[in-house]
Amino acid sequence: xxxxxxxxxxxxxxxxxRIEDVIGRGGMGAVYRSTDERLGRRVAVxxxxxxxxxDPQARERIRARFLREARAAAALPHHPNVVPVYDYxxxxxLGLDFLVMELLQGEDLATRMGRGEQVPLTNGIWxxxxxxxxxxxxxxxxxxxxxxxxxxxxxxRSGHGDEVQVRVLDFGIAKLIADEDTLTQLTQDxxxxxxxxxxxxxxxxGLSKLNxxxxxxxxxxxxxxxxxxxxxxxxxxxxxxxLGMPVPVPSLRAYNPAVPxxxxxxxxxxxxxxxxxxxxxxxxxxxxLAQVRREMGDVPxxxxxxxxxxxxxxxxxxxxxxxxxxxxxxxxxxxxxxxxGRASPRPGxxxxxxxxxxxxxxxxxxxxxxxxxxxxxxxxVATLVLLILLGAAGVFAWxxxxxxxPEQIADEIPAAPDTLPTILPEQxxxxxxxxxxxxxxxxxxxxGRLFRAGDYGGALEQFRAAVEISPGNAEYRNNYxxxxxxxxxxxxxxxxxxxxxRSDPNRAVAYANLADARAALGDTIAAIAALEQFLxxxxxxxxxxxxxRRLRELQASQEPAVADPDEEPxxxxxxxxxxxxx
Length: 582
Hints:
By secondary structure, this protein is α+β, with helices and mostly antiparallel strands. 44% of the residues lie in helices and 9% in strands. The protein has helices spanning 2-8, 56-74, 109-114, 121-140, 201-204, 212-228, 235-242, 261-270, 282-296, 366-374, 378-402, 406-411, 437-452, 456-469, 474-486, 490-503, 508-520, 524-537, 541-558, 572-578, and strands at 12-13, 17-26, 29-36, 41-48, 85-90, 97-102, 106-108, 153-157, 164-168.
């Protein structure tokens, strides 16, 4: 927020901390280089700008949670792998919450990796071990980080030559508003801290109950990228995970054969889909990494290569090292509730996962990309269909067949004929690449991801593809219609939203979206009718209150103004010209 940044520069927060210049920005605020005027030392002050929207109760909940989490973070014991919190509070004049931390010199791991230089293997394992130790400090105090990523792992220079300390940033702060995620409401600040490339499956699925194993997964994702230069899961993988579909964890050695088998096994365990299959907490993960390092022997760390004086090259949108925390931001429900609460990576492709994929900077076309990815899902879909068709008896027979002795099955196979016949189909075979409902679901999920990242054009293409495959699905068409509305194609939006309602007359959110479109077209009567129908269908108290307020505003705009008895009556042609379009 440049406006707040310029306002704060030179001010004294909490009658003690003089704000100087911005040294970092994030979704919840900005970090400023500052001076503690009471103690005369340089500090870093993080000013929180999450507001809770226009809801004062939400704002108070966020502030109470901030104070609670800041108090817990400040109470963490001193540890070389954690950034200490010196102070926290709320500026009485500006009403801004802030944290005061140690001012570090150095760079975060995302910047280090973003320079495109491969981190030496021994250094990478050491960095991961030190970061796990830092996260473990919070776990022992009952704090879950929730946003472990390269950008929250700082490589601090100690001032003694090339000596570097690994520090974990923002402990507990990412939790401030996670429980405030109610994106199915019509208005909400709606910002959920999340870095999808490093988020655990339970976070991607929107589950509120997290535990230390969630941070272990994030550490594993950081380690995978740190040691291989690639991310373990693609955007499509994360979409499947968000739907509750486990995805196999790839081997690090497939990307970097120099990774020891023990390291590969350790990080892959940390990336297990089920929390119970991972290490229980960061301390256990760090302990195993320490044992692995001991088994590797006394391999010296390579000298640290700090950033040069030249600015780092800009990272393209497709670069895999962009780990900025994502926030789903909007002022009302945009898409169907089924999409809300999902995690949202930034637009752009992940690094290539296998040599057969296009080179960095290029991606397959959306339809072909999903066809390629769907091949690995064929066995799962086929198995589900088979189970449904067979029923209980068939399932029993299926498993009995699987348990038959190999020699018995071999006896039943007839000998192969000398020549194989040529079979000519009577009609063309079904195209195996024909899109399915699974494709439509993936397109819809991808559209939601792009929409929340602000890529409305990309989201529109995904929603359009979903509608083409499944034209009768009201959810997909509603999402397509509202994205058209956000892009300014209001007439097309109204048409698509009307068609969504015809497909499912009970889809309340489509009426709310249609009301916006009709109002934008000047058709106030139709907008009122749509809001009234929304109120008939919705049982959410908050949504109803907001919709009722909008309805009153629209109805008030329809009421004729009380004429001034001293004013000359307007001529009929003037009334016609000044009347709002219907």
